[in-house]
Each structure stands twice: as structure tokens, then as C-alpha cells.
Amino acid sequence: MPRSTNAVASKRRRKKILKSAKGFYGSRSKIYTVAKNAVEKSFLYSFLGRKKKKRDFRSLWIQRINAGVREYGKSYSEFIKKLYDNKIKINRKVISDIIMNDPSVFKKIIKYIYK
């Protein structure tokens, strides 16, 4: 029995990798084996980047809240504790947005928490 190859699928697989490597420098976008390694690494970085993005934004929100609360002479940890004690369920993203865009509302929250 003669040897058969699936040239169509193989070529499609290689084209898919080279298409993903488009814009890479030098042989990383031209040579299949080099491109394959570069693309795998880039996919790994993009996966990890999506996870890191969440950490970075949470950190930014915490910094903004801390800066907003410090104007009233309080600390971030004390503020978050008071929110939980008063059963106010606002996440850090929303609190950060309130501080940035509507300081008068944030002032009312501070007054309500620290009666």
C-alpha cells in the first residue's frame, strides 16, 4: 500500500501558525518551526496578560480609594471595614468610579459610614 499524506490539512495547519506569527520579527514570522515556538509563547503571554490585567485594575482601584479616603483623614483598610460593618455592598471598581466622577456622593458615603 502506498504511503499517503494529508497535505491539505498539514498546509492548513502551517498557514494558521504563520498567519498568527504575522508581524513578528525576522524568521519568527517566516520559518514554520521558529514561528510555531514564537506563537506558542505569545499565546502563553496573552493568557497570563489577561489574568494580570485583573490584578492591575484591582490594585489601581485600591490606590484610588486610598487616596480618596485619605482626604478625610481615614485609611483604606478602616474604610473597607466600615463598609462591611454597615452592610454596604459596593465593589471597589464602583467606589473608585464614584471618587473620580462624583466626589459629593463619596462625601455622603463617608458621612454615613462615620456617623
Written account of the structure:
- The chain is an all-alpha fold and 115 residues long.
- It has a single domain, classed as Orthogonal Bundle (c-terminal domain of poly(a) binding protein).
- It contains five helices and no strands.
- It has helices at residues 7-20, 32-70, 76-85, 92-101, 103-113.
- The mean pLDDT is 94.
Give a nutshell description of this structure.
This protein is mostly helical. 73% of the residues lie in helices and 0% in strands.
Task: Quickly list its features.
mainly alpha, single chain, 115 residues
Task: State the helicity in percent bands.
Answer: over 70%
Provide the CATH topology.
c-terminal domain of poly(a) binding protein
Parts with pLDDT < 50 across at least 5 consecutive residues? none
> What is the succession of H and E elements?
HHHHH
Q: Please compute the radius of gyration using only Cα atoms.
A: 26 Å
Mean pLDDT: 94
What quaternary form is this?
A: single chain
Question: Main sheet, how many strands, which sense, barrel?
Answer: none
